[in-house]
UniProtKB/TrEMBL annotation:
Designated name of the protein: Nucleoside-diphosphate kinase
Phylogenetic classification of the source organism: Bacteria, Pseudomonadati, Pseudomonadota, Alphaproteobacteria, Sphingomonadales
All residue ranges annotated as the Transcription elongation factor GreA/GreB C-terminal domain in the record: 83-148
InterPro entries membership: GreA/GreB_C_sf, Tscrpt_elong_fac_GreA/B_C, Tscrpt_elong_fac_GreA/B_fam
GO biological process, one term: DNA-templated transcription elongation
Amino acid sequence: MSVAFRRESDEEHLEPRFELPIPPGPNLVTARGLRQIQERNDAIEARLKTKLPEEERKDVLRDARYWRQRLVSAQVAPTADGEQVAIGTRVTFVRDGQTRTIDLVGHDESEPAANRIAFTAPLARALAGAGVGDELEFAGSDKPLRVTAITVVPDAEEAAS
């Protein structure tokens, strides 16, 4: 009998839904990042208490597994002192004549369009531990990247309660 005449369920043809990938390494966060994770987890848990269509419920449960894990594994990074680049600092640097300011944050609060990058991003790793006036090689450029200012990100310095 030809496959064309066999009745198969529609689910056999669906793309598999994989779990959301958990970034490797420690889940370091700022106080702001911990609040964001908690708020996201609370919103998803509230949504799970409502009546949802089966497929939507599966998607929400998938998200819930991710955010529950991120909440449980979150570790508030030590408060930065503003003397060296670390998670929770705002760094201004000059590269190829262009001045740029970024915040180093945890994975889940990173938003490159808003100049918040994860502490594990290549640029963040290159800057980590640097002080004002330090010149660093980055991305094979023949001109060094120069750190011009470091401050503590206002939201990041609040202790997690």
